[in-house]
């Protein structure tokens, strides 16, 4: 069965720099790279690299960045339902620091995207619907309603976080925040692993939506039989963590579509996301199914 990804497509402009400038300061950076990105595109590419039939639904501009993104994505094993508009393509300015990164996103064409309901006939054969919050919330909600009506399992990666997602929980089967987004979801600061895990148990007891919290180098936590299960991440030499969360989401959706159970899919996606951080650029290090299986 296949995966539908509704979401953003961006041109990532990655500037390598040793530190961020403070207000009023100009710094000389080291290097600039242009990568295809956007949480929607990243998640779709991660799924497609495992040979899962994947449709990406979204929008770019008619500008040079939009054309470049489409050309690159046509080389992936993806079914593209990507429209073009006169509004500029989404851009992410990514400051790549030695051990971290800082990102500013200009949504552009992503924010203006609305679903062509006729085109969703192509969703009829799918089993999994995956989206995030880098497109308009109204479009996220409509996508969830359409997916639910077609009987798809719905997954939302609530990034970047917006509190409006709480209203949409009845339409969401699985939600996949990282630790920061989970704290925002529950409106409570979490200062230790113990607090995080207790909050996950409390939240899950109150909601029908299944919860997965991605925890970076610590791995991924979810709840099974009323207890926290944590799948550890692989320990690798980290080059760039941009898109690691997207890799997790795309692989998790792909593995569920392939028929694996929830825990197996979390494990597959955690290993794949760990492997993805060894190259610069969100999509550069996304692994194939064979590579992931070699590490399981
Ligand atoms: O999650 C990583 C992505 O966030 C980047 O590719 C960038 O485009 C931003 O949307």
TrEMBL record:
Residues 2-288 form the Carbohydrate kinase PfkB domain. It holds the Pfam family PfkB. K(+) binds at residues 240, 242, 276, 279, 281. Its cofactor is Mg(2+). Its EC number is 2.7.1.15. InterPro entries: PfkB_dom, Ribo/fructo_kinase, Ribokinase, Ribokinase-like. The active site is at 246 (proton acceptor). Pathway: Carbohydrate metabolism; D-ribose degradation; D-ribose 5-phosphate from beta-D-ribopyranose: step 2/2. It is found in: Cytoplasm. Belongs to the carbohydrate kinase PfkB family. Ribokinase subfamily. HAMAP family: Ribokinase. Catalyzes the phosphorylation of ribose at O-5 in a reaction requiring ATP and magnesium. The resulting D-ribose-5-phosphate can then be used either for sythesis of nucleotides, histidine, and tryptophan, or as a component of the pentose phosphate pathway. PANTHER family: RIBOKINASE, SUGAR KINASE. This is Ribokinase. It comes from Candidatus Enterococcus lowellii. The lineage of its organism: Bacteria, Bacillati, Bacillota, Bacilli, Lactobacillales.
């Amino acid at each position: 069965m296949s995966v539908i990804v509704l979401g953003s497509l961006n041109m990532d402009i990655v500037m390598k720099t040793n530190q961020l400038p403070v207000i009023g300061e100009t710094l000389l950076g080291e290097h600039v790279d242009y990568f295809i990105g956007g949480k929607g595109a990243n998640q779709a590419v991660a799924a497609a690299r495992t040979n899962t039939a994947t449709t990406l639904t979204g929008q770019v501009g008619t500008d040079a960045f939009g054309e470049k993104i489409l050309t690159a994505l046509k080389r992936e094993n993806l079914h593209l339902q990507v429209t073009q508009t006169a509004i500029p393509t989404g851009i992410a300015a990514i400051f790549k620091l030695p051990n971290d990164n800082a990102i500013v996103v200009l949504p552009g064409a992503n924010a203006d995207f609305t679903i062509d309901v006729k085109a969703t006939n192509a969703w009829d054969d799918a089993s999994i619907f995956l989206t995030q919050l880098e497109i308009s919330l109204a479009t996220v909600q409509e996508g969830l309603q359409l997916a639910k009506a077609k009987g798809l399992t719905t997954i939302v990666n609530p990034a970047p976080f917006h509190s409006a997602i709480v209203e949409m929980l009845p339409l969401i089967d699985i939600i996949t925040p990282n630790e920061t987004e989970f704290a925002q979801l529950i409106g409570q600061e979490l200062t230790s692993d113990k607090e995080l895990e207790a909050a996950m148990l409390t939240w899950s007891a109150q909601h029908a939506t299944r919860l997965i919290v991605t925890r970076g180098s610590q791995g991924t936590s979810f709840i099974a039989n009323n207890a926290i299960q944590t799948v550890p991440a692989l320990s690798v030499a980290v080059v760039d963590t941009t898109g690691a969360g997207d890799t997790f989401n795309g692989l998790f959706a792909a593995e569920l579509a392939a028929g694996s159970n929830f825990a197996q899919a979390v494990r597959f996606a955690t290993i794949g996301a760990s492997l993805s951080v060894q190259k610069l650029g969100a999509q550069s290090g996304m692994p194939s199914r064979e590579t992931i299986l070699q590490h399981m």
